[in-house]
Specification:
The chain is α/β, with parallel strands linked by helices. The protein is 41% helix and 10% strand. Helix 2 links the parallel strand 2 and strand 3. Helix 2 runs parallel beside helix 3 and helix 10 packs parallel to helix 11.
Length: 290
Amino acid sequence: MGVLNVTPDSFADGGLYLDPGAAEAAAVEMEACGADLIDVGGESTRPGSETVSAEVEIERIRPVLSRLSRSVKIPVSIDTSKPDVAEVAIGEGASIINDVTGLGGAIGLSEARSRPAGASGGGTPQALGYDASLAEIAARSGAGLILMHARGRSRDMYKDANYASVAVEVGEELRASLERALSAGVGLESVVLDPGLGFAKRPEHSYAALGALPSFAALGCPLLVGPSRKSFLTAAIGERATGERDMATAASVAAAVLLGAHIVRVHNVPAMVDVVRVADRIRDAAGGSA
Protein backbone atom coordinates (compact mmCIF):
# COMPACT_ATOMS: atom_id res chain seq x y z
CA MET A 1 0.00 0.00 0.00
CA GLY A 2 1.55 3.26 -1.14
CA VAL A 3 1.00 6.33 1.04
CA LEU A 4 -0.29 9.46 -0.70
CA ASN A 5 -0.94 12.26 1.76
CA VAL A 6 -2.45 15.40 0.25
CA THR A 7 -1.80 17.40 3.40
CA PRO A 8 0.56 20.24 4.35
CA ASP A 9 1.63 18.66 7.64
CA SER A 10 1.96 14.88 7.44
CA PHE A 11 5.21 13.80 9.12
CA ALA A 12 6.93 12.17 6.12
CA ASP A 13 5.42 13.69 2.97
CA GLY A 14 3.49 16.76 4.08
CA GLY A 15 3.21 19.37 1.33
CA LEU A 16 4.63 17.19 -1.45
CA TYR A 17 1.32 16.33 -3.10
CA LEU A 18 -0.98 19.27 -2.45
CA ASP A 19 -1.20 19.83 -6.20
CA PRO A 20 -3.62 17.23 -7.65
CA GLY A 21 -1.40 16.76 -10.68
CA ALA A 22 1.62 15.96 -8.51
CA ALA A 23 -0.49 13.56 -6.44
CA GLU A 24 -1.72 11.81 -9.58
CA ALA A 25 1.81 11.47 -10.95
CA ALA A 26 3.01 10.00 -7.65
CA ALA A 27 0.18 7.45 -7.61
CA VAL A 28 0.84 6.41 -11.21
CA GLU A 29 4.52 5.92 -10.36
CA MET A 30 3.65 3.87 -7.26
CA GLU A 31 1.46 1.58 -9.35
CA ALA A 32 4.19 1.20 -11.97
CA CYS A 33 6.68 0.29 -9.23
CA GLY A 34 4.50 -2.49 -7.84
CA ALA A 35 2.04 -0.99 -5.36
CA ASP A 36 -1.17 -3.02 -5.00
CA LEU A 37 -3.12 -0.22 -3.27
CA ILE A 38 -2.93 3.55 -2.90
CA ASP A 39 -3.98 5.15 0.40
CA VAL A 40 -5.06 8.79 0.03
CA GLY A 41 -5.24 10.98 3.13
CA GLY A 42 -6.46 14.55 3.53
CA GLU A 43 -5.77 14.99 7.24
CA SER A 44 -2.58 14.38 9.18
CA THR A 45 -2.89 11.97 12.08
CA ARG A 46 0.69 12.31 13.30
CA PRO A 47 1.04 12.66 17.09
CA GLY A 48 0.20 16.18 18.17
CA SER A 49 -1.66 17.11 15.00
CA GLU A 50 -4.94 19.02 15.12
CA THR A 51 -8.06 17.88 13.32
CA VAL A 52 -9.39 19.64 10.24
CA SER A 53 -13.00 19.97 9.16
CA ALA A 54 -14.66 17.54 6.79
CA GLU A 55 -14.97 20.39 4.30
CA VAL A 56 -11.22 20.98 4.24
CA GLU A 57 -10.52 17.27 3.97
CA ILE A 58 -12.95 16.91 1.07
CA GLU A 59 -11.45 19.91 -0.70
CA ARG A 60 -8.06 18.22 -0.54
CA ILE A 61 -9.00 14.68 -1.55
CA ARG A 62 -11.80 15.12 -4.10
CA PRO A 63 -9.74 16.39 -7.07
CA VAL A 64 -7.07 13.76 -6.41
CA LEU A 65 -9.52 10.86 -6.24
CA SER A 66 -11.26 12.09 -9.36
CA ARG A 67 -7.96 11.92 -11.25
CA LEU A 68 -6.97 8.54 -9.81
CA SER A 69 -10.27 6.98 -10.87
CA ARG A 70 -9.13 7.51 -14.44
CA SER A 71 -5.37 7.01 -14.18
CA VAL A 72 -4.71 4.00 -11.92
CA LYS A 73 -6.13 0.49 -12.05
CA ILE A 74 -5.30 -0.63 -8.53
CA PRO A 75 -7.74 -0.05 -5.64
CA VAL A 76 -7.66 3.27 -3.83
CA SER A 77 -8.42 3.68 -0.13
CA ILE A 78 -9.40 6.83 1.73
CA ASP A 79 -7.66 7.44 5.03
CA THR A 80 -10.40 9.13 7.07
CA SER A 81 -12.54 8.75 10.13
CA LYS A 82 -15.23 11.18 8.95
CA PRO A 83 -18.42 9.74 7.39
CA ASP A 84 -18.94 12.78 5.14
CA VAL A 85 -15.44 12.41 3.71
CA ALA A 86 -15.88 8.68 3.22
CA GLU A 87 -19.15 9.21 1.31
CA VAL A 88 -17.49 11.66 -1.07
CA ALA A 89 -14.46 9.43 -1.51
CA ILE A 90 -16.57 6.38 -2.36
CA GLY A 91 -18.45 8.51 -4.86
CA GLU A 92 -15.14 9.51 -6.46
CA GLY A 93 -13.99 5.92 -6.85
CA ALA A 94 -12.34 4.89 -3.57
CA SER A 95 -13.17 1.28 -2.71
CA ILE A 96 -11.69 1.02 0.80
CA ILE A 97 -12.13 3.11 3.96
CA ASN A 98 -9.07 3.25 6.22
CA ASP A 99 -10.22 4.36 9.67
CA VAL A 100 -7.39 5.11 12.11
CA THR A 101 -9.85 5.31 15.01
CA GLY A 102 -11.14 1.75 14.59
CA LEU A 103 -14.74 3.05 14.51
CA GLY A 104 -14.16 5.15 17.59
CA GLY A 105 -12.28 2.33 19.25
CA ALA A 106 -10.75 3.46 22.50
CA ILE A 107 -10.78 7.11 21.49
CA GLY A 108 -12.44 8.09 24.75
CA LEU A 109 -10.05 6.46 27.20
CA SER A 110 -8.54 9.74 28.39
CA GLU A 111 -11.96 11.29 28.89
CA ALA A 112 -13.27 8.20 30.68
CA ARG A 113 -10.32 8.01 33.05
CA SER A 114 -10.55 11.68 33.96
CA ARG A 115 -14.31 11.56 34.61
CA PRO A 116 -15.26 11.43 38.33
CA ALA A 117 -16.76 8.16 39.55
CA GLY A 118 -20.47 8.04 38.92
CA ALA A 119 -20.38 10.93 36.44
CA SER A 120 -22.59 10.73 33.38
CA GLY A 121 -21.17 9.73 30.04
CA GLY A 122 -21.90 6.05 30.14
CA GLY A 123 -20.46 3.19 28.17
CA THR A 124 -17.16 1.41 28.37
CA PRO A 125 -14.04 3.35 27.40
CA GLN A 126 -13.87 1.39 24.15
CA ALA A 127 -17.38 2.53 23.18
CA LEU A 128 -16.88 6.24 23.76
CA GLY A 129 -16.79 8.24 20.55
CA TYR A 130 -18.31 5.39 18.53
CA ASP A 131 -20.38 6.39 15.53
CA ALA A 132 -21.83 3.62 13.36
CA SER A 133 -22.03 5.86 10.30
CA LEU A 134 -18.65 4.94 8.85
CA ALA A 135 -19.29 1.21 9.14
CA GLU A 136 -22.76 1.66 7.66
CA ILE A 137 -21.27 3.46 4.66
CA ALA A 138 -18.87 0.56 4.13
CA ALA A 139 -21.70 -1.97 4.47
CA ARG A 140 -23.99 -0.10 2.10
CA SER A 141 -21.36 0.57 -0.56
CA GLY A 142 -19.53 -2.74 -0.31
CA ALA A 143 -16.28 -0.93 0.43
CA GLY A 144 -13.50 -2.62 2.31
CA LEU A 145 -12.88 -1.37 5.83
CA ILE A 146 -9.49 -1.11 7.54
CA LEU A 147 -9.76 -0.78 11.33
CA MET A 148 -6.68 0.48 13.10
CA HIS A 149 -6.00 0.30 16.82
CA ALA A 150 -5.66 3.68 18.52
CA ARG A 151 -6.38 5.34 21.82
CA GLY A 152 -7.10 9.01 22.30
CA ARG A 153 -6.92 11.68 19.63
CA SER A 154 -3.82 12.59 17.65
CA ARG A 155 -3.11 15.67 19.76
CA ASP A 156 -2.92 13.71 23.03
CA MET A 157 -2.70 10.00 22.17
CA TYR A 158 0.32 9.31 24.36
CA LYS A 159 -1.78 9.93 27.47
CA ASP A 160 -3.21 6.46 26.88
CA ALA A 161 0.06 4.69 26.06
CA ASN A 162 -0.20 2.45 29.11
CA TYR A 163 -0.37 -1.33 28.72
CA ALA A 164 -0.03 -4.29 31.04
CA SER A 165 0.12 -6.47 27.91
CA VAL A 166 0.23 -4.97 24.42
CA ALA A 167 -0.70 -8.27 22.79
CA VAL A 168 -3.73 -8.81 25.00
CA GLU A 169 -5.05 -5.24 25.18
CA VAL A 170 -4.51 -4.32 21.53
CA GLY A 171 -6.04 -7.66 20.55
CA GLU A 172 -9.10 -7.05 22.73
CA GLU A 173 -9.60 -3.54 21.40
CA LEU A 174 -9.21 -4.66 17.78
CA ARG A 175 -11.80 -7.36 18.48
CA ALA A 176 -14.17 -4.70 19.82
CA SER A 177 -13.69 -2.62 16.67
CA LEU A 178 -14.34 -5.68 14.52
CA GLU A 179 -17.52 -6.51 16.43
CA ARG A 180 -18.82 -2.97 15.91
CA ALA A 181 -18.20 -3.27 12.17
CA LEU A 182 -19.96 -6.63 11.96
CA SER A 183 -22.93 -5.35 13.95
CA ALA A 184 -23.30 -2.51 11.44
CA GLY A 185 -23.55 -5.02 8.58
CA VAL A 186 -19.97 -5.10 7.31
CA GLY A 187 -18.99 -8.60 6.19
CA LEU A 188 -16.04 -10.26 7.87
CA GLU A 189 -14.42 -10.73 4.46
CA SER A 190 -14.39 -6.94 4.00
CA VAL A 191 -12.41 -6.10 7.15
CA VAL A 192 -8.64 -5.65 7.55
CA LEU A 193 -7.12 -5.03 11.01
CA ASP A 194 -4.14 -2.80 11.78
CA PRO A 195 -2.38 -2.81 15.18
CA GLY A 196 -1.54 0.89 14.77
CA LEU A 197 2.21 1.12 15.27
CA GLY A 198 3.06 4.47 16.84
CA PHE A 199 -0.53 5.34 17.70
CA ALA A 200 -0.89 5.66 21.48
CA LYS A 201 2.18 3.46 21.67
CA ARG A 202 5.64 4.32 22.86
CA PRO A 203 8.48 2.60 20.97
CA GLU A 204 8.49 -0.48 23.17
CA HIS A 205 4.73 -0.85 22.64
CA SER A 206 5.08 -0.61 18.86
CA TYR A 207 7.77 -3.28 18.81
CA ALA A 208 5.58 -5.47 21.04
CA ALA A 209 2.60 -4.96 18.71
CA LEU A 210 4.71 -5.93 15.72
CA GLY A 211 5.89 -9.03 17.51
CA ALA A 212 2.30 -9.92 18.44
CA LEU A 213 1.05 -10.13 14.83
CA PRO A 214 0.53 -13.92 15.00
CA SER A 215 -1.87 -13.48 17.93
CA PHE A 216 -3.83 -10.76 16.10
CA ALA A 217 -4.24 -13.13 13.14
CA ALA A 218 -6.47 -15.24 15.39
CA LEU A 219 -9.16 -12.55 14.98
CA GLY A 220 -9.75 -13.94 11.50
CA CYS A 221 -8.99 -10.90 9.33
CA PRO A 222 -6.07 -9.94 7.11
CA LEU A 223 -3.54 -7.72 8.87
CA LEU A 224 -2.13 -4.39 7.72
CA VAL A 225 1.04 -2.96 9.27
CA GLY A 226 2.25 0.61 8.82
CA PRO A 227 5.81 1.04 10.15
CA SER A 228 7.05 3.35 7.41
CA ARG A 229 9.54 5.99 8.62
CA LYS A 230 7.84 6.22 12.02
CA SER A 231 9.61 7.57 15.08
CA PHE A 232 9.52 4.28 17.00
CA LEU A 233 12.27 3.09 14.65
CA THR A 234 14.68 5.64 16.14
CA ALA A 235 14.63 3.79 19.46
CA ALA A 236 16.78 1.20 17.68
CA ILE A 237 18.78 3.30 15.21
CA GLY A 238 19.09 6.67 16.92
CA GLU A 239 17.64 9.96 15.79
CA ARG A 240 17.33 10.23 12.02
CA ALA A 241 15.35 12.48 9.70
CA THR A 242 12.23 10.79 8.37
CA GLY A 243 13.75 10.35 4.92
CA GLU A 244 16.73 8.52 6.45
CA ARG A 245 14.64 5.77 8.05
CA ASP A 246 14.05 3.58 5.00
CA MET A 247 16.54 0.88 5.97
CA ALA A 248 14.91 0.59 9.40
CA THR A 249 11.53 0.59 7.68
CA ALA A 250 12.72 -2.27 5.45
CA ALA A 251 13.64 -4.33 8.51
CA SER A 252 10.22 -3.80 10.07
CA VAL A 253 8.44 -4.50 6.78
CA ALA A 254 10.33 -7.78 6.37
CA ALA A 255 9.52 -8.74 9.96
CA ALA A 256 5.86 -7.86 9.44
CA VAL A 257 5.62 -10.09 6.37
CA LEU A 258 7.39 -12.96 8.11
CA LEU A 259 5.05 -12.63 11.10
CA GLY A 260 1.92 -12.78 8.96
CA ALA A 261 1.07 -9.29 7.66
CA HIS A 262 -0.91 -9.27 4.42
CA ILE A 263 -0.47 -5.56 3.62
CA VAL A 264 2.29 -3.11 4.48
CA ARG A 265 1.69 0.63 4.21
CA VAL A 266 4.83 2.43 2.99
CA HIS A 267 6.18 5.66 1.55
CA ASN A 268 9.08 4.29 -0.53
CA VAL A 269 7.20 1.86 -2.75
CA PRO A 270 10.01 0.74 -5.11
CA ALA A 271 12.36 -0.25 -2.28
CA MET A 272 9.70 -1.90 -0.15
CA VAL A 273 8.29 -3.92 -3.04
CA ASP A 274 11.69 -5.63 -3.24
CA VAL A 275 11.69 -6.21 0.52
CA VAL A 276 8.20 -7.73 0.46
CA ARG A 277 8.97 -10.03 -2.47
CA VAL A 278 12.05 -11.47 -0.76
CA ALA A 279 10.31 -11.79 2.62
CA ASP A 280 7.38 -13.53 0.90
CA ARG A 281 9.75 -16.10 -0.61
CA ILE A 282 11.31 -16.75 2.79
CA ARG A 283 7.90 -17.13 4.43
CA ASP A 284 6.74 -19.52 1.74
CA ALA A 285 9.92 -21.58 2.02
CA ALA A 286 9.41 -21.79 5.78
CA GLY A 287 5.90 -23.12 5.28
CA GLY A 288 3.96 -19.91 5.92
CA SER A 289 0.78 -18.92 4.09
CA ALA A 290 1.07 -17.07 0.80
